[in-house]
Write a structure and sequence with these properties.
The complex is a heterodimer. Chain A is of the alpha/beta class. Chain A contains four helices and five strands. In chain A, strands 2-1-3-5-4 form a five-stranded mixed β-sheet. The chains are: A alpha/beta, B mainly alpha.
């Protein structure tokens, strides 16, 4: 009887130690959660849907268009966000299309491109080109 | 109104799928399992119906949903009248003092509240998901499905390989289905679906263990999952890893519940195997890793059946055993497998993991790659959950050794469901290992960017099996249902 009670107590202690050790990580969960006073949406909508809305209105509803943009990781994020905003258009990272969009956020001047002819500058680094040499 | 209708139809269809597989008239503890399953199965069916409707050009989506729910309801009503009533009370395998119980319950409720708070604030701040994969893969695919009309398959183009157009469509299909009801896109839909999958996984872990091993084991297991920071973070990120973890857990828990119920009446429990198959099929329809899990599950089940057959020399018994234990699982998987086969063959371009078979085989003979993957497996075993100070995996191991001397000696051999589940998870891990060995990408980049998520996919199931194994058997003299009192499962 005493042994059974002792085992029960030991099991209880082990279970409580386990529970409180688990609870340690709850501190991390709460610590990494956004603060209630700072619940502002991130920049995805601003950098995709909102920024590209006027350009999207000027593009065909379906099909494939070309794309040029900044190199590097920031340029890759801009490209993915452009595809996200312009779906169901397929945005191919290539100049080899009759319509090509240029995405250069923050760049004051239009980029110099040999094969592309500017159709319209939407501001904020968003450009629409035509490529007459495209296959 | 439209949203309420969509939610009701989704949940009802999921509930009827779960209830059709349940072998007895549900008691209160069973309802928690069925409700948790209903959330995931409903979303799985919603995705299935949506993509199938797109494929065959069916424009009457709401009518199709009503028809699907109606059919499931009729089947449920037909089967329900034949189900045996639940006669026994729920089990409790760990006998603890009231104070310990209350403290444990309080800790669990605090962890649940913290996880809910973190999940909700995260989706408010990241409505398009947290991390690139959310908007460049999963939500992008949902947009292609919803925005493209009859030309929906054009979005799954080899021109944008980075969007992984070969990935299965469970979450994008479910999102697009809800958007169709609403008539417009809103990020609330993928955000809520992410939260539903996260907490349905916790609910399923809790409820299935509560049925099999009692409330204390259920509390401890779900506490271990709720306090895994990476689970909460990923669950709300709108990636597909947590939905996949839900379906893997659902398949495995149904297999183990099948064993428990089979002690009572084997003829009525094949439906649980079908339900396990349905969930394995949904896992494969969620991510390509789910397809690997499905193959691992079939292999593990086949080995279990063969092993059993070797114990009985008669060929007739082999056939009977295979039919009884294997066929229902395959029947459950079949619809999702057919849809996946059609999608992979007719819509999706080839995946990017096997561009050069000769090179892949060559990589299998490079010992340095084995060392690299093994080292990362070792490191991520301790850190994938992003725990604070004490890794959850290490904590489980310590807990096992703390309780081991006090457990009753294991006199029963492992039941087929447990053995199948354990082997399926091991084979899946081994499969991941091979994928890393032959990856065409930089091996360290690949490991760094995905291994923690692959471990997370299996984490709820690993916790489930751990507590199934470690929780002591109930003495038969207690007021417990005999079929649930066996241990280990």
């Amino acid at each position: 009887m005493v042994t059974e009670q002792s085992e029960k107590n030991q099991t209880s202690v082990a279970i409580l130690i386990f529970a409180f050790c688990c609870l340690l990580s709850t501190v991390r969960i709460l610590g990494s959660a956004p603060r209630p006073r700072h619940l502002q949406p991130d920049s995805v909508a601003r950098r995709s849907d909102q920024r590209l809305a006027s350009l999207k209105a000027a593009l065909p509803a379906r099909g494939v268009i070309g794309y040029i943009g900044e190199p590097g990781i920031a340029g890759t994020a801009d490209y993915y966000l452009a595809q996200y905003a312009l779906a169901p258009l397929v945005v191919d990272n290539s100049e080899n299309h009759s319509l090509v969009i240029g995405n250069f956020p923050g760049r004051p001047n239009e980029p110099v491109t040999a094969n592309l002819k500017l159709i319209r500058n939407f501001g904020d680094g968003l450009l629409l080109f035509t490529n007459e040499e495209a296959k | 109104m439209a949203l309420t209708l969509a939610v009701l139809l989704c949940f009802a269809s999921g509930y009827f799928i779960a209830a059709l597989g349940w072998p007895r008239r549900p008691c209160p503890s069973d309802f928690a399992v069925l409700d948790s399953l209903a959330a995931g199965c409903g979303l799985g069916l919603f995705s299935f119906v949506y993509v199938l409707s797109r494929a065959i050009g069916n424009a009457h989506l709401i009518a199709t949903d009503f028809a699907a729910v109606g059919l499931l309801l009729v089947a449920f009503l037909l089967i329900r009248s034949r189900q045996p009533a639940q006669l026994s009370k729920p089990t409790e395998n760990w006998q603890l003092s009231d104070v310990t119980r209350r403290m444990l319950t309080a800790v669990f409720l605090f962890a649940l509240a913290a996880a809910l708070y973190a999940a909700i604030t995260r989706v408010i701040v990241h409505p398009h998901g947290e991390g690139w994969d959310a908007f460049s893969i999963w939500n992008l695919h949902a947009r292609f499905l919803f925005r493209s009309g009859p030309a929906w398959s054009e979005g799954f183009s080899p021109l944008i390989p980075w969007s992984h157009p070969d990935y299965p469509l469970l979450t994008p299909g479910a999102i697009a289905h809800f958007w169709t009801y609403l008539g417009h896109e809103t990020q609330a839909v993928p955000a809520v679906i992410a939260i539903v999958f996260t907490f349905a996984t916790v609910g399923l872990l809790y409820s299935s263990l509560a049925v099999l091993r009692g409330r204390i084991a259920a509390l401890l297991a779900s506490l271990a999952l709720l306090t895994t920071p990476f689970f909460i973070e990923q669950g709300t990120s709108q990636y597909a890893d947590v939905p996949l973890s839900f379906f893997i857990l659902a398949a495995i828990s149904m297999l183990c519940l099948h064993d428990a119920f089979a002690q009572n009446d084997a003829t009525k429990t094949n439906r649980l195997l079908v339900l396990a198959g349905v969930n394995a099929g949904f896992a494969a329809w969620t991510k390509n890793e789910g397809l690997l899990f499905l193959v691992a599950l079939i292999t593990a089940r086949a080995l279990a059946v063969i092993r059993e057959a070797t114990l009985s020399p008669q060929r007739a018994q082999l056939m009977a055993s295979a039919t009884r234990k294997f066929l229902p699982l395959l029947i459950g998987m079949a619809p999702a497998l057919l849809l996946i086969a059609w999608f992979k063959h007719f819509v999706a371009p080839p995946g990017d993991l096997f561009p050069d078979r000769a090179l892949a085989i060559h990589k299998l003979f490079e010992p340095a790659r084995y060392g690299a993957v093994l080292r990362w497996y070792g490191k991520d075993f301790l850190r994938f959950g992003e725990w604070l100070l004490i890794p959850g995996t290490l904590l489980l191991i310590v807990f096992y050794f703390l309780l081991k001397p006090k457990r009753e000696p294991q006199t029963h051999r492992l039941a087929p469901g447990f053995a199948t589940s354990y082997l399926a998870l091991s084979l899946t891990l081994a499969g991941y290992f091979v994928i890393y060995l032959i990856t065409p990408r930089d091996i360290y980049w690949h490991l760094r960017n995905s291994l923690n998520r692959l471990f997370l996919q299996l984490w709820p199931s690993a916790i489930f099996l751990f507590f199934l194994l470690i929780t002591p058997a109930v003495k038969k003299s207690a007021h417990l249902p005999e079929e649930l009192a066996k241990s280990p499962n």
